[in-house]
Automatic annotation (TrEMBL), chain A:
Entry protein name: Ion-translocating oxidoreductase complex subunit C
An example molecular function term from Gene Ontology annotations: metal ion binding
The species this protein was found in: Alkalibacterium subtropicum
Domain 4Fe-4S ferredoxin-type stretches: 359-391, 399-428
Gene Ontology biological-process annotations: electron transport chain
Alphabetized InterPro entries for the sequence: 4Fe4S_Fe-S-bd (IPR017896), 4Fe4S_Fe_S_CS (IPR017900), Ion_transpt_RnfC/RsxC (IPR010208), Nuo51_FMN-bd (IPR011538), Nuo51_FMN-bd_sf (IPR037225), RnfC_N (IPR026902), Soluble_ligand-bd (IPR019554)
Primary role: Part of a membrane-bound complex that couples electron transfer with translocation of ions across the membrane.
Cofactor note: Binds 2 [4Fe-4S] clusters per subunit.
Keyword Cytoplasm: no
Binding site for [4Fe-4S] cluster 2: C379, C408, C411, C414
EC number(s) reported in the record: 7.-.-.-
Automatic annotation (TrEMBL), chain B:
Sorted UniProt keywords: Cell membrane, Electron transport, Flavoprotein, FMN, Membrane, Phosphoprotein, Translocase, Transmembrane, Transmembrane helix, Transport
Protein name as it appears in the record: Ion-translocating oxidoreductase complex subunit D
Keyword Nucleotidyltransferase: no
A cellular-component GO term for this protein: plasma membrane
Amino acid sequence: MSFSFKGKHGGSHPDDNKSRTSKLPIEDATVPKIMVFPVSMHIGAPAKPVVEIGDKVKAGQLIAEAGGFVSANIYSSVSGEVIAMEKRPTVGGESDAIIIKNDYSYTMADPIVEPGNAAGMSKDEILDTVRKAGIVGMGGATFPTSVKLSPPPGMTVDTLVINGAECEPYSTSDHRVMVEHPDEIIKGINLSRKLFPLLKHIYIGIEDNKPDAIKALEEASAEFKDITVRPLKAMYPRGSEKNLIKSVTGREVPPGGLPAAVRCVVLNTSTIRSCYRACELGEPLIERVVSVSGTPIKNPKNLRVKIGTPMDSLIDDCGGFSEVPGKVLGGGPMMGKPVSDLGVPIIKGTTAITVLTPEEAHIGEEQNCIMCAECVNVCPVSLQPILISEAFERGNIEKAKELGAMDCIECGNCSFICPSKIPLLDNIRAAKAAIKQKEEA
Amino acid sequence: MAQAVDVKGKLRVGPSPHIRTARTSSWVMSQVMIAMIPPTIAATYFFGWWVLVMVAIGIVTAVASEYIYQKLTYKPITIHDNTAAVTGMLIGLSLPVTAPIWMIMFGSIFAIIIVKQMGGGVGKNYFNPAVAGRVAIKAFFTPWLANWVLPGGFFGSGYRGVDAVSTATPLEYLGDGAQTVAAEVPGLWDLFMGFNLGGNVGETSKLAILIGMLYLIFRRIINPKIPILYILTTTVVMGLWANFNFDFMMAHALTGTLFFAATYMATDYSSGSLTPEGKTVFAIGAGLLTAFFRIAFNYPGGVGFAILIMNALAPSIDSKLMPRIYGHKKRPAVKFNRQSENN
C-alpha cells in the first residue's frame, strides 16, 4: 500500500492482494464433463445458436453466430454433444445457454483461417478474422473487438494503447499473460499496424507493481522503436479506459464519446494476444487465463481455462474453500459481479474469480456524512459523489444530472473509500437509471 | 464437484464495490482527538492539572448536550461518531485556565445545540461549532475572561477563577497598526515552545500543535494545504505590512490562536470547503482575513472571525469552484449548497 497525503488524487489504493498469484505460472485447468456457453457473453445482441440438441460438435466449432454488427460468434471449447439449450445463471444475469457434454476426445474443428499467414493478411482480412474468431474485450468490458478496431468514418487513430494496467486487486491473469507471452502481445500489436495506417504511437501501459511484466514487454518490443512500455504508478482505477488514455496520452475522451474521438484505440493485453492467435493460428476465442484467488481459496492459481467451464470446477482445481466464503465474484473486488451459484460459467470477459470472506465483504454500518471529501479526492473523473448521492436521495434528478452523474464510470472508489460507509455508487447508479428513464419518457 | 464447504444460499450478492476501506468516521474523529493530546500535555505542563478538568468538562458537556438534544427531538443518536467529543475538547482547550466551569459548559452547549444541531447536524452545519462557541463566549462574557494569565506549572495553578492577575496579550502590542515587535512581546523561541506564555491553554506551545498537525497530515486526516496556506498567508501579509521585518512576521505566525485554529479548526470538514480548489481559497481567505483583523483592530479574536466568515462563504466558493469533470471543457454549471435542504 503506497502512502500519500490527503488531497485530490483521482484514485485510491486498496490493498492489491496480488502476491498470492502474481508469481505462479499459468496452469491448465481441469476440463469438466459439462460445459455451459451462454449466447450472451458480450455487449450487444445475443449470438444465435447454429446447433441443435443432439448435435455432435468439435472443439473450435461455431455453435452460435453473431446476432448483429455489435455481437460476437461463440465456439465450443470442447468436442462432444449438445445436450441442452436452456436458461442458465451467468455472471451478470440469466442467459440462454448451449450445454455441451464433453467427450474428452478433443477432436479439433478446422482452423478459422489457414495458419501461418498472418503476416500476409490485408487490413480487411485481419478485421474479418478477428470478427470471425468471436474476440471481445477480455479485460471485462466484452465489447466486440472488430467493432472497436473499425472506428467510425472520419475518425483517425494515431495512438494504440495496450492496457496491461490490471488495477483490480487480486487479479493477475493479464500480469501472467504479459510475463509468459510477451512475444504474442507484440506480434498482435504489429499485426494491428495494418489497421491504422496513421498510427504514430503505441503504448503499453502497465502498473509499476508488475516490474517483471514491464521487463518482459520491454525486451520483447526492443526492436520496435515506436512501441513504448509505459510504467504507471499503481492506483485504482488506472486501467479504466478513460483514465488510461489520460495517463499515457494526456488526452480526455469527450463525454459520451469513443476513444477514437481523441484518436486512440485501447485494447487489453489478452485481447490483442487473442487477435494474434486468431490470425496466425486460426484459433477462435475458446480459452482464456483466469486468476482464482482470495482468502478462502486453498491454493490460489492462474489457470488456462476453456470458455464455458463452470466456476466450481476451477475452485476445485484450487483445492476448494478453506472457509465459508462471503462473496464469490466474477472479476475483482472493485468492479466484479457477484454470483449466487458456482455453476456459473467462465465467459470471454472473466478475468478472475475473486472469493472474499464474509468479513472482507462486510460493509460497515452507515453513518452520517462528515464531509471528509475522500469521495471527491478519489473520483477518477472529478465528480463530487456525495453531492450526486444526496441530490438523488432528495429526489432531485435534475441536479444529479447537472452534477455529472452520467459521467460516472462506476469504478466504485467513492463507496470503497467512504468512512461513513454511504452507498454512494448505489445512489449514483440509481440516479443514472432515473435520468435515462426521464430522458426516454 | 465435491467441495468441503457448502455455499448454497450463503453467498451474498450486493452490488460492487465489494470491499470497503477499514476507516470509519468514528475512527477519523478519534484521530483528531489523539492529535490534540500534545497541546493538552503542553497545556497541563504549563498551566496545571486543571487543564485536564477543563477538557473533560468540555467533552462531557458537548456529548451530553448532543445526546439530550437528539433524544428530545426524536433524532437518531450520533454521539458515537465522536464529532461532538472533538468539539468539546476544542472548547476546553481554547479557553484560558481561569475560565469558570459554567463558561466551558456554556461554550460546549452553544456549539453543539445552536451551531451544530440547529445548523443541520453533523456534516451540514455552516459554522465550526467550536469556533462559534468560543466567539460567543468572548462576545457575551469578556468581563469574566482574564485572557492573559501567566502559567504557574503543574501544581502551581489549578482553577484560580477570576481573581488571577491578568495582563495584556502580546497581540495587543503586535496588532492595531504596529509594524515592529514591542519589547513586551516574548521572544520567538518562547512563543514557539510556549514558555512563559499566557492565553488560551491549548494554543500556547506551537511545538505541541505542530506535532499534532504532522500527525493529522501523516494519518491522512487533514489536507496539509489548509493549515500550511493559512499560516503562510497570514505570515506573508504581516511581512508585507512590516517590510518583511523577520521578527515581526514570525511573532505574528507564532502568536495567538493562529497555529491552533489553522490545525484543528480551519480543517474541520463540515464547515470548510468540499472541493479541492475551494480548500485552497478557504485557507488563503482565512489567512488574509486574520492578517487584516490583526492590522486593523486591537482585538485578539481575529482568527475566530476569519474562520467564521470563511465558513459562511464556503458553500458559494464550492459552487464556483466545482472541478471540471473528465472530458468536459468547463466546470459544471450547477448551483449547489449541500448544507441546504432545498438542493
